[in-house]
Design a protein that fits this description.
With 252 residues, the protein is mainly alpha-helical. Helix 2 crosses helix 3, helix 6 packs antiparallel against helix 10 and helix 8 packs across helix 9.
Length: 252
């Protein structure tokens, strides 16, 4: 009888009633994490990703280490390894988050309604959010342009590049309805490469110098695209009826 009672007690004290490490009870199947522990884990991951972004920007991806990221986050390397097995896994997670936010940003920037704007105002509407995102998230620039970035990030970035180039073509086609598709593609390709080169300069400066390079980039874009529109373009006619925009009349 005592043995039977012991077995019964053991059955009643199994996994269903076992307290979790943080004091909350786990589900009988062990498939549902306690909400409080899950929130703590998500907060820790966010802390580590923020630290990684800072370290990548300061040291570059190649020279960064998990020890430096843990130190920046104020945790031990052992704590870091509870969430990420290595630096590459951290970069991939951070890259995924930034790419998702970038998709939303360029989706807003390349809104089709911007084709109803005069060229100078369209440049503001498209370029401003793209530049702002890169300035606010310098780790994105590091991860998208580094020489030893994990392949998954570069593959997704290449796919995103192709999508953005298509959106540039769509917008330009709205301004250049009578121009052959092959020429529109070349113009879009040139515009995209000019933007990337200008962004390199913008990211290399801060404060007033950064603002000056932003203005120069817009000026280059305007002076390249403006002659392509022609006097018969409805956008050109709209623009000519308005007060001159700040992009015009600048010295080269």
């Amino acid at each position: 009888m005592p043995e039977a009672r012991a077995k019964k007690g053991a059955a009643g004290g199994g996994a269903a009633g076992k307290p979790a490490a943080d004091g909350t009870a786990e589900g009988s199947a062990g498939t549902t994490r306690p909400r409080r522990r899950q929130a703590r884990g998500e907060a820790r991951i966010a802390q580590l990703l923020q630290a990684a972004a800072s370290v990548f920007c300061t040291s570059g991806y190649t020279a960064s280490s998990t020890n430096a990221i843990a130190r920046e986050a104020g945790v031990s390397p052992g704590t870091l390894y509870q969430f990420f097995p290595n630096k590459e896994a951290i970069a991939v997670e951070l890259g995924d988050q930034l790419l998702n936010r970038w998709r939303h940003t360029y989706g807003t920037a390349f809104d089709q309604t911007h084709t109803e704007l005069p060229l100078d105002r369209m440049l503001d509407a498209v370029l401003d959010p793209l530049i702002a995102f890169n300035c606010e998230n310098p780790a994105f620039f590091v991860l998208m342009h580094g020489s030893e970035i994990p392949g998954r990030i570069t593959e997704e970035h290449d796919t995103l590049h192709a999508t953005m180039l298509s959106r540039v073509e769509e917008i330009l086609a709205g301004y250049l309805p009578d121009v052959p598709a092959a020429q529109v593609h070349r113009v879009a390709d040139m515009v995209f490469m000019v933007f990337k080169a200008g962004l390199d300069l913008i990211m290399a400066h801060e404060g007033e110098e950064r603002d000056a390079y932003i203005r120069e980039l817009k000026t280059i874009m305007f002076r390249y695209l403006d002659p392509l529109l022609g006097d018969d373009s409805p956008h050109q006619a709209t623009k000519n009826c308005q007060a001159p925009h700040s992009h015009r009349g600048r010295t080269p």
